[in-house]
From TrEMBL, chains A, B:
Binds 2 Zn(2+) ions. Zinc phosphodiesterase, which displays some tRNA 3'-processing endonuclease activity. Probably involved in tRNA maturation, by removing a 3'-trailer from precursor tRNA. Its EC number is 3.1.26.11. It catalyses: Endonucleolytic cleavage of RNA, removing extra 3' nucleotides from tRNA precursor, generating 3' termini of tRNAs. A 3'-hydroxy group is left at the tRNA terminus and a 5'-phosphoryl group is left at the trailer molecule. This is Ribonuclease Z. Coiled coil: none annotated. Zn(2+) 2 binds at residues 66-67, 211, 270. Its cofactor is Zn(2+). Homodimer. The keyword tRNA processing applies. Keywords: Endonuclease, Hydrolase, Metal-binding, Nuclease, tRNA processing, Zinc. InterPro entries: RibonucZ/Hydroxyglut_hydro (IPR036866), RNase_Z/BN (IPR013471). It comes from Massilia agri.
């Protein structure tokens, strides 16, 4: 599975960071999905080489502008590229009338249908063929959600030892069993595929959260997750200074949660623009966020940067692509 | 007067060009104005060093997405920067309910008031202290306008020859006359300031058009204009191929008009993404647009690029800043 960050700043952009959006896809898949779509996301897609034509679904965590103002432009551009396939949008309910209002005022007509899915109906919807998607409600000053993406199908390996022990020689029968099909041998023996397949590995699972001041709301979801992508808008010190109004997490809050939940990979994002990429002149730096998180979390920790692409291996290890 | 281009692509962005927006201001003024606000304009403003806090007014030519989808994000960012001064928005009427719909859905509350001006009321509105603004209706497939910006106040120079000939010595009296005030001399003579001021120079005037397939609609406005900024989406050949549906201009169409109108400076913008910045592999290039325009126009011609800043001197010459 792959996650590519398209924007990692909160509220307003910085010179190096757009506002929130991230692409998710199964490794090697042509189609991909988008979680959140801040203004400028389509510009980042050009740089990432991700086409709005092969975008299968958009998942919006919440309706603050820094998570959804790029949507009308992306829809328009997909139209100009002559997209014809339906595009699924999973989002809090008020998004649909807002987009329809924008489309009417700007006379935007799309050559493809929009398939709207209310978040509450997501568990019954079959949105992606390769990934099961679930939503978990978070705590923020507007209705807000996290999405988890879990591999729907995990490849099975043959238990070759057992096949050989049973006198079943390598051949077309092995292929049938690997496909999960029961087989009747020429000698009349009936083989149940399941008996000759090694136990499946755990399906990979990634959680991408929206804005949230209570990471523990993800406790159930995180139990079997390999990766948690979560906002860490500030350090704890600044969070205390700012007060509880904005309802964001600190690095410490998220890191402690990820450590307790046993999540192996934690990627922080959605940084307040007050944190500079490079420390200097006594200004606040993203190093402060990283340092604070490391104090509470022993797993693989990363701070997302725009256009960073991560690959989650079948071994559950998250690696920054191109490194 | 200064014009800075913030986006010069039409419809969709390219790797080097955002979609339409341009900043206008009197040279040296702190406050500035924005004409159109495509998605990503606020990112360009960061690079241009133009603050949403010192933005005085926004003029929207028409409501196609590639001219206005950056507006909600810019308004939000100005809010986060604690802007308190009212922001004037001049736009076709359906923009206001659209923005209000977006603000409601995304719970965007601004710490400053929006002062909406319907384009039809612009001639009665005193939008900018330093520039008179007028709107001219264009021909496009949605209600669309051009805005002209004319210096409201032109400095006056003393007619020192006449003052000396009248025996009026250099002193405080000269200052009074320069300020346009009539003076009574100690000998009882009454001086009318106007009689001792050199004729004012022509106020500088810039026209920035929206999308338009009939440049001649600007004939009246262009008569005393120093600069015309106008879309030249394609060459004439491509315009013929595409057909009249999109209602855009070709380079030839605009250049011929500017030549006939006697406009001294012509800046083309809003280029179809099919034109590459650098020619190669037989692809269409912006050189084609430039060449076509030069065939019909003998004045100062420029093709706008993102972040290019032009200065219009008191001599009526338009110069690319930093060159």
């Amino acid at each position: 599975m792959e996650i590519q960050f398209l924007g990692t700043s909160s509220g307003t952009p910085t010179r190096s960071r757009n506002m929130t959006a991230a692409a998710v896809r199964s490794s090697g898949a042509k189609h991909w999905s988008l979680v959140d779509c801040a203004e400028g996301t389509q510009y980042r897609l050009q740089r990432a080489g991700l086409s709005p034509v092969s975008l299968r679904a958009i998942f919006i965590t919440h309706l603050h502008g820094d998570h959804c103002y790029g949507l009308p432009g992306l829809l328009a551009t997909a139209g100009m590229l002559n997209r014809s396939e339906a595009l699924t949008i999973v989002a809090p309910a008020p998004l649909r009338p807002m987009i329809e209002c924008i489309m009417a005022a700007t006379q935007l007509e799309l050559p493809y249908p929009l398939a709207w899915v209310a978040i509450e109906d997501l568990s019954h919807a079959d949105v992606l063929p390769d990934l099961r998607v679930r939503a978990t409600r978070l705590s923020h000053r507007i209705d807000c959600w996290a999405y988890s993406f879990t591999e729907a199908v995990v490849e099975r390996h043959l238990d070759t030892g057992r096949l050989r022990a049973g006198g079943i020689a390598s051949g077309p029968v092995w292929g049938e069993i690997q496909r999960g099909r029961n087989v009747v041998l020429p000698d009349g023996r009936e083989l149940t595929a399941e008996d000759y397949l090694a136990p499946p590995r755990k399906p990979r699972k990634v959680i991408i959260g929206g804005d949230n001041d209570t990471p523990s709301l993800l406790a159930d979801e995180a139990r079997d997750a390999d990766v948690l992508v979560h906002e860490a808008t500030y350090t704890e010190e600044i969070r205390q200074k700012v007060g509880p109004g904005p309802q964001h997490s600190s690095a410490a809050l998220v890191a402690r949660f990820a450590q307790e939940a046993g999540v192996r990979n934690l990627v922080l994002t959605h940084f307040s623009p007050r944190y500079q990429d490079r420390p200097g002149n006594g200004s606040l730096s993203l190093d402060d966020i990283e340092k604070e998180a490391r104090e509470h979390y022993q797993g693989m920790l990363a701070l997302a940067r725009d256009l960073d692409r991560y690959e989650l291996g079948k071994d559950g290890v998250l690696r920054l692509a191109g490194q």
